[in-house]
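Q: Hi! First time asking for a complex rather than a single chain. Here are the components, and I think there are two in total. Is that enough to go on?
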Amino acid sequence: MTPAITLANVSKAYRRYGGKQFATLKSAFLQRSILRDLQPSETFPALTDVSFTVARGATYGVIGRNGSGKSTALKLVAGITKPTSGTVTVRGRISALIELGAGFHPEISGRENIFINGIMLGLSKREIQARFDDIVDFAELREFIDAPVKTYSSGMYMRLGFAVAIHVDPDVLLVDEVLAVGDEGFTHKCLDKFAEFRRRNKTILLVTHSLNLVERFCDEALWLDAGRAMTHGDPKRVVGAYLTKVEEGEEKLLADTTAKAVEHAGHGGRVGRVGQVGEDTEGTKRPADPTSDMFTAAEGRWGSREVEITDVAFLGRDGEPTFVVHSGDPLSIRVKVRAVRPTDDFVFGVGIFNADGVCCYGTNTFLEEMNPERLSGDAEATFAVDSLDLVEGTYKVDVAIHKRDGFPYDYHRLLYTFRVKSRVRDVGIYRPRHRWSFSPTVQFKSGRDDR
Amino acid sequence: MLSNLANLLRYRGLISSLVARELKARYRGSVFGFLWSFINPLLLLLIYSFVFTTIIPNEEPKTRPYALFMFCGILPWTWFASSLSDAAGSLIAGGNLIKKVLFPAEVLPIVSVLANMVHFFLGLVILIVFLIVYRHPPDAWDLFWFPIAVLVQLVFTCALGLLLAALAVHFRDIRDILANVLTLWFFATPIIYPYFQANVQKFRPLFNANPFTHLAISYQEILFFYGPIGHWRWLLALGGGSLVLFLGCYWVFDRLRDSFAEAV
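A: Yes, that's all I need. Here is the structure of the assembled complex.
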């Protein structure tokens, strides 16, 4: 079967602005160099040697970070821009849900805009007349259809644009991140419409950040990064590969933020906080104050530094430092300290806070009835969780070493950040180990949820 | 290029609905609405006739009633001038369409020209009213030439409109330059003074080199002056030249087409 969309070794370079422009209009004319000057002198590669084919009737997802060339790929398929090199072949009528309502004129009514937009998208007046009611109902705009479009809310505007574009009845539908246009109900309607397209063996090319959608909906996926095709094929595998890369990026980002936070607190703490150590003792008795809010509680570092925390690391399943953990995986917090003099009065404490500032868990060695005997020189303490049953989110961590009466040696407040990832979008704080069971009269479809 | 030109015919539904949109949107929200299409030329007529009959009167007896004579030239000029300035900005104003939708860009400048042509036709109604008021009926046989003059002007204006629209995307200066050039062009064309005036005849070759001279004279002969139209050879020659110009301008437009989506 001939594929609906074929991209063969497609590259696209955009001209960078700020570089050489025309010196003057006159010189451009005189030197007959208009056409030559329009060739880009300094270019930015948006896509580099990308090839893929989409079979007729398939749903193909394109994922990637912002600026990875997804939308450029879509525009090339739509024919809005031409590739710098390589070829793009598309069979059948295209409708592009790229910019919804791009052709709307704000001053005239929704009704007139439907007609004009429909004609722009290649329908005849009669075809639009026949679909008019469907379009209006789909957009849920019956009572506003004769009002000028400028009075519409952005949601109404997008819905109308979506409704027109989807009723063009294309063979190839290009979708660019447009499912975010409406409320839940509208999104469902759009998904239903896509499902209908699939049933009717239409080709869909979908650009989205919703990996969930790609996994559930697409037959194949492509991952673009910095204009290059990283991998394509089975959506689950592609999404997995992409997520791994994203986590690496996040790790780096979290590592950077943490390093900055610690450094900042280190300087600030030494200068500004030491004098307050005495007063602070009351407030820092408990390592984790459950009522304190993460965003109001100042992050920082204070203490006498008789015992100093020299390093804090999160260790993942493999014992390697990490900043991203999957829910249910093991996580260890390793604290390295250095005691100036040997001491027999010390307590190690940790506290984990979620983004709302709620203390998810806090403990210390004193609460767990460990009796300190001796700490000297360089030492290390590891707080290990076998299964980190937290829901997805960003968590901040307190790490402290202090006396039994709460007098802080070194208190690191909310300086460390890690992320918990989860494939399930459950809510709350804690995910208890659980399973569902049903009587035989309750049945679920096997396989993916294909709405 | 030729297949693109043929496509232009396929877009006539799109063009006509865009023209209708343009006209509807133009006066939407104003109190007088569509009446402005009549009021604007009427006010223009009043201003010019006041200035040129009362303040600096033209002595040439053949141009009486002067307001009428002038109006025959000003109406097509207004169509021409506003078409060009609208067309020059049309691709930039319609940037959303060019960047986000697969859209035949040449439609936009052509829509500008056509929308202004509709205003020209509405202005003609005012002209007809005044021809009746002044009891100055044009020669019936001359009127045969009127659609030809309109057609020639349409082709000529579309040609320049396409060229300016395409170039203005890359040289934004064009719109400012154009405004000044149009002012100069207006005074260099026998619109507010007759062609046969002696001091105009001194520069005859210069005036003949100005294409709009021949359009203005044709309109004046068709609508205003009695007697058979003597300028038809020039008009037809200009028509032929405009066709060639149109093809040339369309060629430039077509060459620059792929750069629009990025440069707009």
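A: Chain B touches chain A at residues 13-14, 17-18, 21, 24-25, 28-29, 96-103, 170-171, 173-174, 177, 255-256, 258-259, 261-263 (CB under 8 Å). Let me know if you'd like any chain examined more closely.
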